[in-house]
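Here comes just one.
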Amino acid sequence: MTETPSPALTYADGALFRHGRPFRMLSGAVHYFRIHPDQWEDRLRRLAAMGANTVDTYIPWNFHERVEGSADFTGWRDAERFIRLAGQIGLDVFVRPSPYICAEWSNGGIPFWLSGRARALRTSDPVFLTAVDAWYDALIPRLAALQTAHGGPITAVQVENEYGSFGSDHDYLLHLRDGLRSRGIVELLTTADGTTADMVRNGSVAGAMGSFTFGTGVAEAARLRVPDQPLLCAELWGGWFDHWGEQHHVRSAASMIGTVEELLSPRDPQQSGGSVSLYMAHGGTNFGLWAGANHDGVLQPTVTSYDSDAPIGEDGTLNDKFHALRAVFAPFHDGDLPPIPEQPRRQAAASAPLTRVATLLDVVRAVPAGVTAPMPLTFEQVGAEDGLVAYEARIDFAPGAALTVDVLHDRAVVFLDGVKLGVLERDAERSLALPALRPDQGSDGSGLLTLIVESQGRINYGPHTGEGKGIMAGVRIGRRFAHGWTHRVIPQDVPAIPVGADAGLAEGADADSAAGLAEVVFDVADPADAWLAFPGGVNGLVWLNGFLLGRYRAVGPQVTLYAPGPLWVEGRNVIRILDTDALGSVVEIREEPDFGPLEEFIGS
């Protein structure tokens, strides 16, 4: 019989050990999926220079399995390469591969194709577990091979993420725990929950060490922990994320380091001090359309930046928090820490005018008409992961009749015969009056109704997680439903719109509309990181050399988008912008980021 390898991390009498020696986990969260792969090594080296001995990362299921049954672990999705790099640098790896990750990531990491059909996410519902098992069959053996027991850097694996604040299906937790073990995980298993007895009770499972998530709750966590288990804060919130329309959250270095020192210090001579993983050590970026959303009475979409006021900034900049943590972590190391890396290079400031390529309706009509149905279909039903879907139907109407979208997720720009009528919002106005008739229309009107519907971020936390996108019910003209809908899914790569004089305008389009697709070209001699700003733009998506950087919105707080150096090339660089409301006139390269007005965050 083959002997089961021993795990690297064990615990006894409230103390943590690594291969039998007393150990403190000094960790920081760094997410490979929020960093250009060419910059993974740089960010990990900065983490090691901060004094961390461990990196923790989630593994977002939906990032890897965008199409059911086709899990992708190549390129940007090569999590194994990221883990091996960490080991080569000398870092342990704490992996958090839950089916659900939260992380302000779209849908909490659950694939849209699954949340569109599973009745009960994060439960022992057979539909959900069947999909989880298939995903684990693809993922877990890859992680198992990289465990410390087999010569790799993985020392800990999380079973589920803050489950105690979501549900109470203990069989589900047992299924995940047993699924990890049966697929070869031998290292320390953990859970993570907030600092209330109810959360800990419902989020715990036998055979997994409990840990906590908080900003300032050291005393409460110490009181709630199982006496034999060490005190680990798996997420110490040293900063916070931002929603569109709010302010940029920051936490002072003094506030953060005070909580870290309290956690690491023994609470009495008979106890060992705790361990920490800072969330985030390096936040990175919600590139593409991967930013999630919260729901607290209204939808709260998360911004593109995930800087999180972290010690290592979005572009790798090292700040006061980095130096404070390095000083606190240094005494826990036997030797000297790695030298402090230089600050990153940035491109010089520049500005260039935008050239409009096509109207918003040009973009829509360039996409072939897709599925038709009597009632409008959801994003999930037409296979749209996120972004934009255009709904079109021929309608008859009386002048001044109300157009109403019964359940809208999340925003729609409305056109009638190519003329913009207005914008409808999920948590604001979902009705508008149809226009008066032209003289040639008599007493009744008709026309082509187009609604360009935008998903502003799939909810990642709480009871609304997994909620669908698009037009979720019907569209009514007065009391009467409009029937006969055609759907066009706007691709997330650069729309295939012809450039220049041959572009033309869609038939009936409003040529004076300020919305649409535009581009700008920057000639770059020495590619480096850059910060992009879009003065005058209202609600846009931005591509750099074909890569979707993310969103900008005039409501702020985020003003600049991070454009990593590896995305630029020497010579001609093309930036394309699709704005659903109004394009600006220029694009600016700025030398400093602008995350918007500040608001102090401490947490609980």
Summary: Residues 500-512 have pLDDT under 50 and may be disordered. The chain has three domains: 25-332, 350-357+510-600, 368-490.
